[in-house]
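job 3f2a | input accepted
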Amino acid sequence: MKSVLGKLIQKEFGRNKYKMYCDKLEQKECMDIFCDIYFDLIKVSEEKRSAKLVHLLKTVQLSVKISQIFLYITVAYALAAIRLVTMSLTVEYKVCAIILLTSVYIYKFVEYIKNRYCTRDVRLVLIYKTALFHLLSDEGK
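job 3f2a | predicted structure (141 res):
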């Protein structure tokens, strides 16, 4: 499972470039990444760049929203587990329901961790955003 920011970079530039960018980040070659992204974006029309910026901002909002709602998901999980335990169901139904509930919670927990602590993807998105802003601000002059 990848973070939504990592998926955005892969969608915009492809898997191979994403892996190359990750390698360059580890080698602290951020300017190379910026130049590569910049020269890819310079070939695209201004309207498409604006659309890419809007898509980037929506993806960042989604990433933040995943982190913000996790507390509510945890509270709902705890309340649902307590409710299931106190219900007058057979033990088999309770066990199946708690296993299903816990499976969904674990999925949401992994999603939260991937999106909350994806520093590599955040750095790539910041470089992408900087290149987009630079190109869009140059065209406004």
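job 3f2a | Residues 46-86 form the longest helix (41 residues).
job 3f2a | closed
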